[in-house]
Write a structure and sequence with these properties.
Elements lengths: L4 H13 L13 H30 L3 H17 L4 H14 L13 H17 L2 H18 L2 H83 L5 H29 L16 H10 L3 E6 L7 H21 L4 E8 L3 E8 L15 H11 L3 E6 L5 E8 L13
Parallel strand pairs: 1-2
Antiparallel strand pairs: 2-3, 3-5, 4-5
């Protein structure tokens, strides 16, 4: 809290009636001591209270009730010192005002215990509060000194209180600096751990990208080259076979393009470096056409509707792509129907294939297509249903929710 006029006023309000500071919990290094320490401290405080009350009754000839009340006000700040520091000072201040009854003109108008408590509270609480609060605390603490202390001793006691307040400020600033330094070190350590984890992830992504480039991309390139050169190496091929090889080459080149885009993302620390447009709902007809060129009996039924967000369109494209690939592997020769229904708040997608007309490819059931679909749909909060159908085929049904921009109210138009 700053020591500007505004800060001083805020410090005064907090000292008198503001929120207290957080409690401090002291834990001893030995568990058994932590169990018995509260009881021992409580007994000690009771004993000190009784001794102080007896001292006040005997030395000042106070009534028993008054002596006990002043003794309680003298000891109570010790109970509040760690859990409620501001309240500890407030009770101490009240005790300092009322603890001088029948004082006999001694140097200290308070009992020896109360003098120790006043100095201890000023030191401990002063080390915890803000500077503006400490300034007001010091000023208020010396008021009873100026009122009740012998004029010959006011100067020395005031200087003592000021020195204690200055020491409290130095201790408090040192403790706060150490705490701040510890927090900064902990934060830096956390940042270092996060950076280490990030680098580990990036290295793993780079390793995966390297393996994909050296193995998968190489084989895809060989497939594309062989498909492109087949019509020239085998001149006796019929036109239908030439078209098939051309379609295979186009699919292989497209797969290589997608793979290079994926490898760029894997090798990059910032996925935003991907600048090529992602496929979406408008690209699904071309996807189905490519499947038809590859020999599949595929049809597409798309209802008119509002265009979904880019993320929904990309997910729909990837699901149709995976569903067509699964149908070609698991149900060779089966007719496939793709149905898309974009509505105002979600997109419904269904890919259904009939029963296979020949045996599936070897190892066709070893992939992770359905799991990948489920992950993509889950990221958008959608629903995925897969399973066999009554005609012996298989269906993939997806619902992808999305929110369209709200129409502005008439009252908001200006």
């Amino acid at each position: 809290m700053a020591t500007t006029p505004f800060g001083l006023w805020a410090g005064l309000k907090r000292l008198v009636a503001g929120a207290d500071y957080p409690p401090v919990e002291v834990r001893l290094p030995w568990p058994r001591l932590n169990l018995i320490a509260p009881g021992v401290a409580g007994l000690a405080l009771i004993g000190v209270t009784v001794a102080t009350a007896q001292y006040l009754i005997d030395s000042r000839e106070l009534p028993a009730l008054t002596g006990v009340l002043i003794a309680v006000l003298s000891v109570l700040p010790l109970l509040l010192l760690l859990p409620r520091p501001l309240w500890a000072w407030r009770v101490m201040f009240i005790g300092a005002l009322f603890g001088t009854f029948n004082q006999a003109g001694d140097v200290w108008p308070w009992s020896p215990l109360q003098v120790v408590v006043i100095l201890l509270v000023l030191l401990v609480v002063g080390a915890r509060v803000d500077r503006a609060v400490l300034i007001w605390m010091g000023l208020f603490t010396v008021i009873p000194v100026w009122i009740f202390v012998n004029p010959n001793n006011v100067g020395g006691i005031t200087i003592l209180f000021v020195v204690v307040a200055v020491v409290a400020e130095v201790i408090g600033r040192t403790l706060r600096s150490r705490t701040s330094l510890s927090e900064q070190l902990a934060e830096q350590s956390e940042v270092s751990e996060l950076e280490k984890a990030r680098r580990t992830v990036l290295e793993e992504r780079t390793r995966i990208a390297r393996e994909m480039h050296d193995v998968v991309a190489h084989h895809m390139s060989m497939i594309a080259v062989q498909a492109e050169t087949a019509p020239y190496r085998l001149p006796e091929l019929p036109d239908s076979a030439r078209s098939e090889f051309t379609s295979m080459a186009m699919s292989a080149r497209q797969a290589l393009t997608d793979m290079r885009r994926l490898l760029g993302v894997l090798r990059s620390e910032d996925s935003e470096r991907l600048t090529a447009p992602q496929p979406g709902l408008a690209d699904i007809p071309e996807l189905v056409t490519s499947a038809q060129r590859a020999g599949m009996t595929a049809t597409l039924d798309v209802a008119e509707g509002e265009a979904p967000p880019e993320a929904v369109g990309l997910t729909a494209y990837r699901i149709v792509q995976e569903a067509l690939a699964n149908a070609s592997r698991h149900a060779p020769g089966a007719a496939v129907r793709v149905e898309i229904r974009p509505w105002t708040s979600d997109l419904s997608l269904r890919v259904h294939n009939g029963p296979p007309l020949s045996e599936p490819q070897p190892g066709a059931g070893d992939g992770h297509g359905i799991a990948g679909m489920r992950e993509r749909v889950g990221l958008l909060g959608g629903e995925l249903t897969t399973g066999p159908t009554s005609d012996g085929g298989f269906a993939v049904a997806v619902r992808l929710p999305y929110a369209t921009p709200a129409e502005p109210d008439a009252g908001e138009e200006a």
